[in-house]
Design a protein that fits this description.
alpha+beta; Creatine Amidinohydrolase; three-stranded antiparallel beta sheet
């Protein structure tokens, strides 16, 4: 069932979003060669606890960590680990914050040290594709308009769009209807209405869009070892246009 949020619910989600943004900004300062994603995960758990919040995905379907930390060819749901990041890596940190029952979800891909030209383009196109999708997140549009905008842009730039993982509704639980594919046809799918809250989170690959699952049954990676990047915002559909409650530039 698709729910539309009240003003009070959105205000609570916005506070969670503000805290999530503050956490991501701290992570951006931490990212450098030599740090481990386990250290980042420990920081996030401590940071949230100090601000009265909890990592919503920890324990969700028995997921054991506060963050997902996906490196290079890992598409999503990478486990934090003790292996040090090295110069030229890319790492996506994805988290869901629960602050007094309000949820916010955002992923961000960071470069570690100096990145090659192809990697820089991957990150630029991935981030731009997110905002291409957000532009379509308007009352009266359909879900297919979001995916079509992302797919046509990313593929036009020579990249592929992951099909196996999608955005979703959020609040009061972590994953709700509707699913938000990052590919598809315009004018298709559920119509967007004022008060809906969704995530838009395209995963963009250098090579093939297909994924394969690691033995931990969580981590998905590219089938051809191409790198994958992801940027995600939690978006409120409003009569005045999309509202980003995880906006890092506000």
């Amino acid at each position: 069932m698709i729910t539309r949020k009240s003003i009070r619910e959105i205000e609570k989600m916005q506070k969670a979003g503000d805290l999530l943004v503050a956490c991501h900004k701290e992570i951006a300062r931490m990212i450098k060669p030599g740090i481990t994603t386990k250290e980042i995960d420990s920081f996030v758990e401590k940071f949230l606890a100090e601000h009265g919040a909890t990592p919503e995905q920890k324990g969700f379907n028995d997921y054991p960590y506060a963050t997902c930390a996906s490196v290079n060819d890992e598409i999503c749901h990478g486990f934090p680990r003790e292996e040090k990041l090295i110069d030229g890596d890319i790492v996506t940190i994805d988290m869901v914050v629960n602050l007094n029952g309000g949820l916010a979800d955002s992923a961000w891909t960071y470069k570690v040290g100096t990145l090659d030209e192809e990697g820089e383009k991957l990150l630029e196109v991935s981030k731009t594709s997110l905002y291409k999708g957000i532009e379509q997140a308007r009352v009266g549009n359909r879900i297919g308009d979001i995916g079509h905008a992302i797919q046509t842009y990313a593929e036009g730039e020579g990249f592929s769009v992951v099909r196996d993982f999608t955005g979703h509704g959020i609040g009061p639980t972590i994953h709700e209807d509707p699913h938000i594919p990052h590919f598809g046809l315009p004018n298709k799918g559920t119509r967007l209405k004022d008060g809906m809250v969704i995530t838009i989170e395209p995963m963009i690959n250098e090579g093939s869009w297909q994924s394969k699952m690691d033995t931990n049954n969580w981590t998905a990676r590219t089938v051809d070892k191409g790198r994958s990047a992801q940027y995600e915002h939690t978006v409120v559909i409003t009569k005045d246009g999309p509202l980003l409650i995880t906006d890092q530039d506000r």
